[in-house]
Amino acid sequence: MLDRRSTNLLYRLLQAVEPLTLEECSRDLGVSKRTLYYDLRKINDWLRTNRLPPVQRRPNAGIYLTEVTKSKVLQLMSEIPPSHYVYTDEERRAGILIAVFFWSDLTLDRLVDWLGVSRVTITQDFKRLREELLQFGITLTYQKGCGYVLGGDERKIRLKAVQDLRFLRSIPVEHPLKKMVETPFAGKSDLTVHVEAIKNNVLPWVEKELQFRFSDDDLDELALLIALSTFRVNQGHFVAKFDSKHIARLKALPEDRAALHILRYIENAHKRRVPESERFFWTAVLAGTERLSENESQLHEPQFHSEDDRRVYLTAQKIVEQFQRLAAVHFEHVDTIVWRIYESLRALYYRHQFDLFPSSGVKKLHPHLNLKVDLLSVTRRIAPAARRLIGDEWREMYNTLIAINLALAIFESERNRRSLIQYRALIVCPQGKLTAQLLKAEVIKHLPFLDVVATVSTRSLDQYLDSVDLVLTTVPITNRLNKPVILVKPFLSQNRLIRLREKIEQALANTNQEEGIVTDLLRLITQYAEVKEENGLRQELSHFIRHIVIRPPSLFERRNQEPLINEILIPERIRILDRVDSWQEAIQEAAKPLLDEGAITEHYIEAMIETVKKYGPYIVIAPGVALAHARPEDGVRRLSMSLLKLNEPVDFSRTECEERCAHLIFVVAAVDNASHLKALSQLTNLLADDNNIEQLIAAKQKEAIIDLIDRYAV
């Protein structure tokens, strides 16, 4: 029989338009290859039972189902009886929680019937569920005459129920638990009808009040939370009172007015007033839901309604400022980047402040982030600003959202330098703002010929269609569009990127866009030069656009775009001196190898010194370590890095109160905002270990320094 994991793998095979590698399946499903082989055996046994050929394998490509097999499997899966579905432990516990939430007359026998397991297994599941709920401050007890009862923090009960209910509703086959949660809801209608009514009649007013839209996923989650809260209120369960300090802070937020729309709906649903604590619960929930700013050109000077908002914004400013100095990058549109980070941090901040669950979207993203950007090691160095704001227990979540926003800013700043021609693309991603931003960053980084006009929800798709050449979407779009539509995964592996390039090239070749660009280029050329063979030039331009502008870069090109640390910090650029007379001389001596080989000009050294004079000793990034840099336009001729090791430290302090001494002075000469980041990330990882810094300072010969650097050049 198929369980959920093997069913999910089978569904992926059904939806795939090309073979899937085991690496992709392992990463996307969160299981080991060994587990995948076990699941494949289950699928093949099921296929053979139904007289169908097993899963096919193609060397160097992956696993797949033939089209004939796909059509027959789809028919079979719609006819799978509920008893053929084997629940995982996690699904059973989620099902028990939702059953307790909805059914006052719940019995073990009913659960045995729904879940298809023994009473002993159900009893063990109850024990594990109680332990799991206690971590959230929720109790699960049996009371005579009342049945199973959930107790504790009402906020956590509702949020946990929504989390588990969304999990159950995502199971890709019909099953008893899915039917159980869709049964008559609150005595009026089934849950799906109730949720759709909230999405159509309540949340649009909330969005209008707040003047922004929710992502499709957040909209679904909010509608479900409102539906479950209505059910709980109808049973007499209310959120506990907030203390007076929290109430004053919540009243200052714009979300407080929007919360009244939800409150009126809940009150009208059971014809009575509810405590004021319900209003503030919804204010906190809305404040902790991320805003979807689809048109960033409309961003304006921030106007804060509360000191909390101002504090979050100042933290975002500090993060961007520290990152530019630490990562040797220089952003042009700093306000836009600060605003993005502010909006992401703001949602996480209010979730933390008012003891709500963190967004599931942020937690899902973190495992994919190391595959995507070389920024986590750098953002961890600027994390103390966010840690003071939010707390240490959510560290990896705010590291993730900061890294995604900074990656997007870096790739946007570089896109116009790397492509002569750009096609306008729209990204449709209902999975949430951070997922959309990560996908946008990947598209901009690896597909520089695409200009991403916006990342939108499915509800906003029509507003942008006339202004784009193609649509990239993470969900199937049922409506026929007059533009090429390409289905993509939210997280792009290297193989997926290569296949995506091929699909885009094919899609654009079938449009008139290429012909229009060729005509425009030809018109421009003829204004300044005599063209002897117009048809030949037209063909060459067409070839250039199709095969040069949109071609996948070779491995050699990708490697040269992002060199390793030992490729730019080479032995000839490392010096050891006993002492210098001033920090200015330290920068000059550290940069001397780069100046001598022509990688930088004298003006670049002057610019680094002037920057320290202007901003202070910010370049001392760790005890004993300084990182000097200036803007690329100040005199950088090629990407390079150098190191001066001083046996006697030099003081960068401007006052006696400061202690900013350094033995190690690194100079980074970056030609743009992106190509040095891999090397810088490796340097950051090296310097994150205090023992490494001590070894570098104690080194008597360059060879010891080089050996340590080589260990991190991976």
TrEMBL record:
Keywords: Transcription, Transcription regulation, Transferase. Gene3D superfamilies: 3.40.50.2300, Mannitol-specific EII, Chain A. One of its GO terms (biological process) is phosphoenolpyruvate-dependent sugar phosphotransferase system. Coiled coil: none annotated. Residues 567-712 form the PTS EIIA type-2 domain. Residues 423-512 form the PTS EIIB type-2 domain. GO terms for molecular function: protein-N(PI)-phosphohistidine-sugar phosphotransferase activity. InterPro entries: BglG_antiterminators, Mga_HTH, PTrfase/Anion_transptr, PTS_EIIA_type-2_dom, PTS_EIIB-like_sf, PTS_EIIB_2. PANTHER family: CRYPTIC BETA-GLUCOSIDE BGL OPERON ANTITERMINATOR (PTHR30185), MANNITOL-SPECIFIC PHOSPHOTRANSFERASE ENZYME IIA COMPONENT (PTHR30185:SF9). This is PTS system, IIA component.
